[in-house]
Design a protein that fits this description.
Keywords: Hydrolase, Protease, Ribosome biogenesis, Thiol protease. This protein has 112 residues and is of the alpha+beta class. The protein is built from three helices and five strands, in the order E-E-H-E-E-H-H-E. 40% of the residues lie in helices and 31% in strands. It has a five-stranded mixed sheet with strand order 3-4-2-1-5. The radius of gyration is 14 Å and the shape is globular.
Length: 112
């Protein structure tokens, strides 16, 4: 099963961790769909929204991508929040069509 944790400070998303592999009849479809959404967010932040790679902490591995935007003045931007919401909506739609392949959890962080 793929687990996606969404990192949030107050009303603002600032990162996520997606890890694990879906298992079952549609595993490849679900995994590739999740990967497409999460990687598109990451590269949109850098290539389209001008976020410096030095302002993003990231780690990657087999079946895992984790990113965190380090500065609140960056992650509080409306365009960045819209990108997170776009990714989240896509993941929710995957879960509706292919239930049982992923878990999506919002993780509230209290301190900076």
């Amino acid at each position: 099963m793929t687990r996606i944790d969404l990192y949030k400070k107050g009303d603002y998303y600032y990162g996520f961790k997606s890890c694990g592999h879906a298992e079952g009849e549609f595993d490849k479809l679900v995994c590739s769909s999740i990967s497409t959404l999460t990687q598109t967010l990451y590269f949109t932040l850098i290539d389209k929204l001008g976020v410096s790679e030095s302002d993003i902490r990231d780690s990657q591995g087999d079946g895992m991508l984790k990113i965190e935007i380090l500065k609140s003045d960056i992650f509080k931007r409306n365009d960045i929040q819209t990108c997170f919401e776009f990714m989240i909506k896509g993941i929710e739609l995957i879960d509706e069509v292919y239930p049982g392949y992923l878990t999506l959890k919002k993780v509230e962080v209290q301190n900076d």
